[in-house]
Amino acid sequence: MKKRHLCCSLFAMGVVLSACQSNGSANEPQPSEPQQEAVENEQEENMRTISYTVGEDDAKVSVDELIQTLDGELTFDELHRTLEMTIHEDQYKLIDGVTVLERNGEYLATDEIYLIEEEGELYLPVAFLEVGLGLEVTFQEKEVAFQWFGPAERVGGPPEGFDFDEWDVDTMVDYLSFLERPIQGAQVSTIDSHLPGAPREYRNGFHEGIDWYDFATGGNISRETPVYAMAEGIVVRADHDFEDYESPEVRNADLALTAELGETPEYIFDRLRGQQVWVQYPNGVMNRFAHLSGIPEDLQVGDRVNAETVIGYVGNSGTSSAVNGNLDDDLHLHQDLLIYGELFWKPLTLEETKEVLQKIWP
Ligand SMILES: [Zn+2]
Questions:
Q1: PANTHER family annotated for this entry (predicted)?
Q2: From CA 93, how far away is CA 114, in angstroms rounded?
Q3: Separation of CA 30 and ligand 1 centre (Å)
């Protein structure tokens, strides 16, 4: 099996070689035997294999074996259930239960990659190799094979010298002013508890985003209120198969755990945000739209959207009202703005954050 793949790669290499030759003289000599052998040796040297197993869903590889084979590093945070990996110069992050892959603070338009835990062992779908690492993978009987070259430069992420931590109000306004408001005609709330940094005692944490409630934004918010994509971007998450907490008890169990821990683990935080759509914009800006009541059927991960695209409808999914069956209570859009994976307001005080929001959505 391995031999056959090698032949295929050599054939591909041959095509490249002849393509190069066509630019020069037609009579240029063919690669000599030793050259051929050198190519062959290099191919063999760069060949890596990782064993895979086929589970209920996809073919998957062990994270430990992957990291070992690629000479990377990994951290799995048991509390937050987050996996962070460093491979070459690239940083990858996944949250258990969330089908979004973060690479260098940007989110990839794929819903094929998610964390799998089986008998205490972590796995990733083989799609991680293809989509996450950009590798061409060949399936063999029990292994996936691919060519591995290094060192490689970082893919995307913040530019050299990106000093986000030092930004003031004006820098932030300049950076974010391309974003239209998510609800047409609504005024951004000035109530502290609707803004980033406000305490959220029910889950032992802090509010990370901006809430758009009817009474604080000029009115007219209902379950039919459309939410717009705010700017040109790409959909990186669309929870079409969303299922809310099956009962108040299950949600309360999550909240009890936050009380025990004194903070909100990331995987629980994600459930509490309810039905979500995430949109990645240029320059590392990303927005999470949360607590939605629905998503347009034809909206898909990978779709290009703009400020006129409806990405969902205001709701209350993930809240105690929704799980208690009170579908019209506590209706609001919650949105989180991130810059290369960091909440935008991290370098600012609450007063400064308010000023930024008032300036970008006057
Ligand atoms: Zn909120």
A1: MUREIN HYDROLASE ACTIVATOR ENVC, PEPTIDASE-RELATED
A2: 10
A3: 66
Show the 3-state SS of 136-195.
CCEECCCEEEEECCCCCCCCCCCCCCCCHHHCCHHHHHHHHCCCCCCCCCCCCCCCHHHC
Whether the CB-CB separation of 46 and 70 falls below 8 Å is answered with no
Which residues, other chains included, contact 141 with Cβ-Cβ below 8 Å and sequence gap of 6+? Answer: 1
CATH topology of domain 2-22+46-147: Copper Amine Oxidase; Chain A, domain 1 (3.30.457)
- For 266-301, how does the pLDDT look when each residue is reduced to its tens digit (9 = 90+)? 999 999 999 999 999 999 999 999 999 999 999 999
Q: What confidence score (pLDDT) does residue 347 get?
A: 94
Question: pTM of the full predicted structure?
Answer: 0.87
Question: Distance between CA 208 and CA 200 in Å, rounded?
Answer: 10
Q: How far is the CA of 289 from the centre of ligand 1 (A)?
A: 10
What residues sit around ligand 1, an ion, with C-beta below 5 angstroms? Answer: 211, 334
Domain 164-360 has CATH 3.40.50.150: no
Q: How far is the CA of 207 from the centre of ligand 1 (A)?
A: 6
Tokens of 101: 């892959």
Query: Are 315 and 291 a contacting pair, CB within 8 Å?
Result: yes
